[in-house]
């Protein structure tokens, strides 16, 4: 379920190189302008699309290498956390992602890659009118998935986790000084974790809601409790319509 696609990976490398910028103001999340209407229609049936979490092992010299088994473990943890969260919310219902044809699977991969690009652009905008009228979309290309699953919206997730090797940790403890990247000469933390979650309207492609969580600490997405805590922290702001309206529109 979490098999990667080359196009998706290439896009992920570009968008996850650094944490997405957090908008200025009092809320970290984003809400599509159509949900800010007096009587918004929130999606109920959600399908979780394949999750991509890159877990990288970082050496004492700052060299990073993805460990596929770790990435799969982290992705499964995020998926299970999301499933549990949806199950415990009476306003939501999870629709299982069925086995897709090769053509439909390719279409999903392409739109997930497009989603990453759109999210990166949206998150880094400093245009006031875009914050007040958040209207980003990936287009209606996933309508076939809506018809096949009966879902109203798709949950898209990507992220990363940097795990220090034992040698890196030992070097830091023994030297009692920050580890320096041999390529950049800059101090490097012992690890960081990043998760981004977005909800896409499957009929229109509108980006209804998105939020992310970044932690520069010992969080380890291979550990379910850590992954679960990051997901729950991210979703504390869902849907957050009134908070968003009060902060940026009223």
Summarize the structure in short.
The chain is built from 8 helices and 10 strands.
Strand content: 15-25%
State the order of secondary-structure elements, H for helix, E for strand. Answer: HEEEEHEHHHEHEEEEHH
Number of DSSP helices? 8
The tally of strands reads 10
Q: What is Rg?
A: 19 Å
What summary fits the major beta sheet? 8 strands, mixed
Terminal CA distance reads 42 Å
Quote the average pLDDT.
83
Q: Residue share in helices? A: 25-40%
When the domains are counted, the total is 1
Runs in which pLDDT lies below 50 for 5 or more consecutive residues are: 1-21, 166-171, 173-177, 179-188
Protein structure class: alpha/beta
| Global morphology | globular
């Amino acid at each position: 379920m979490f098999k990667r696609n080359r196009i998706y990976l290439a896009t992920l490398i570009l968008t996850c190189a650094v944490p997405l910028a957090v908008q200025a103001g009092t809320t970290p999340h984003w809400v599509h302008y159509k949900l800010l209407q007096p009587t918004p229609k929130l999606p109920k049936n959600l399908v979780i699309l394949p999750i991509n979490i890159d877990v990288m092992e970082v050496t004492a010299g700052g060299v990073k290498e993805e460990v596929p088994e770790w990435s799969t473990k982290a992705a499964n943890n995020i998926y299970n956390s999301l499933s549990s969260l949806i199950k415990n919310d009476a306003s939501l219902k999870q629709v299982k992602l069925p086995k897709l044809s090769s053509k439909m699977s390719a279409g999903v991969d392409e739109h997930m890659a497009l989603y990453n690009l759109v999210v990166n652009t949206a998150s880094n905008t400093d245009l006031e009118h875009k914050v007040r009228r958040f209207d980003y979309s990936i287009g209606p290309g996933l309508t076939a998935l809506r018809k096949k699953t009966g879902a109203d919206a798709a949950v898209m997730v990507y992220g990363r986790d940097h795990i220090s090797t034992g040698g890196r940790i030992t070097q830091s403890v023994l030297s009692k000084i920050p580890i320096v990247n041999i390529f950049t000469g800059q101090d490097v933390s012992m690890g960081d974790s990043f998760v981004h979650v977005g909800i896409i309207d499957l009929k229109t492609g509108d980006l209804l809601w998105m939020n992310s969580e970044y932690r520069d600490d010992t969080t380890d997405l291979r550990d379910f409790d850590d992954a679960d805590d990051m997901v729950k922290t991210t979703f504390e702001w869902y849907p957050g319509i009134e908070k968003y309206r009060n902060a940026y529109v009223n």
